[in-house]
Amino acid sequence: MFEARMVRGFIIKRILEAIKDLVSEASWDCSTSGMSLQAMDTSHVSLVSVSLKADGFDKYRCDRNLTLGMNLASLAQIVKAAGNDDVITIKAPDDADKITLIFEPKSETETWEYEIKLMNLDSEYLGIPETDYSVKINLPSHKFQRICRDLSQIGDSVTISAAKDGVRFSTTGDLGSGNVKLNQTASADKPDEAVTIKIEEPIILSFALKYLNHFARATALSPQVSLSLSKDVPLVVEYVIHDDDDDEIGYIRYYLAPKIEE
Amino acid sequence: KSSQTRIDSFFKVL
């Protein structure tokens, strides 16, 4: 028996909104420690990794490890029907060929129940090595969203360069060029609005803005996002998910392969 | 001219 109940059901809604257009089908791996998912987009340029700790749920029971393969667009479509204040419960028997989703509006005496068919997916699982990144940038997630959105009006790719004097995001296209320079913020009065930049070694790398705009759909999950970069390796864009007490209950990490000069 | 690399060329398939 598998059962996971999330009182803040909007977290599940937001996670699905953040991955459904990037990955069409994927498997959730459920164990006593929590639920996780790893999948590449169809063109194999990016990888998304989601983790939700068992502690992050209000009730969590997993008697046996389960792999729940499903169409994420269908799941997102159903979960979209849940209200933002709804409690969401996911249930599956051990030999599941479907899962049950239960939505309970907090103030009402109603229960909405949906069943979703499961799929057998032969998904490739990638081993991601521990990496000491040369550059780590923490910035407000809405700022990152805006940088990606605005620069994609000009060009298809962004060049991120980080050196002692700060980080620059730049792009060029047919109509011209644009760039955004970020400096570390001085005070920690508003941690959500802070920009912190750690540079071990300067880097300059280019990435497709199309994917970064996809990743920015996770903005509602966290006020801050981190970008980790090293020469010639994929960029990591991480949104850490917190509960009401500000404890970490999971994350969405997106990995994006760099563009290289031919 | 830059070209897009693939993510599975960086990480090993398990």
Q: How would you portray this structure in words?
A:
- The complex is a heterodimer of chains A (262) and B (14).
- By secondary structure, chain A is mostly beta strands.
- Helix content of chain A is 14%, strand content 47%.
- Chain A has four helices and 20 strands.
- In chain A, the strands form three sheets. In chain A, strands 6-2-3-4-19-18-17-11-15 form a nine-stranded antiparallel β-sheet. Chain A has a five-stranded antiparallel β-sheet with strand order 5-1-7-8-9, covered by helices on one side. A four-stranded antiparallel β-sheet of chain A has the order 14-13-12-16.
- In chain A, helix 1 (10-19) packs antiparallel against helix 2 (72-79).
- The longest helix of chain A has 11 residues, at 141-151.
- Chain B is mainly β and 14 residues long.
- Chain A binds chain B through residues 40, 43-47, 124-129, 157, 206, 208, 233-234, 255-262, and chain B through 1-14.
- Strand 20 of chain A pairs antiparallel with strand 1 (2-4) of chain B, so a sheet runs across the interface.
Write a short abstract of this structure.
The complex is a heterodimer of chains A (262) and B (14). Chain A is mainly β and 262 residues long.
Q: Helical proportion of chain B? A: under 10%
Overall radius of gyration of chain B:
10 Å
The number of E-state strands of chain A comes to: 20
Going by helix content, strand content and strand pairing, the class of chain A is mainly beta
Shape of chain B: rod-shaped
What order do the strands of the largest sheet of chain A run in, or round the barrel if closed?
6-2-3-4-19-18-17-11-15
Secondary-structure blueprint:
The complex is a heterodimer of chains A (262) and B (14).
Chain A: E1 2-6, H1 10-19, E2 25-31, E3 34-40, E4 46-53, E5 59-62, E6 66-71, H2 72-79, E7 87-92, E8 98-104, E9 112-117, E10 126-127, E11 135-140, H3 141-151, E12 157-163, E13 166-173, E14 176-182, E15 196-199, E16 203-208, H4 209-215, E17 224-229, E18 235-242, E19 248-256, E20 259-261
Antiparallel strand pairs in A: 1-5, 1-7, 2-3, 2-6, 3-4, 4-19, 7-8, 8-9, 11-15, 11-17, 12-13, 12-16, 13-14, 17-18, 18-19
Helix pairs in contact in A: 1-2
Chain B: E1 2-4, E2 12-13
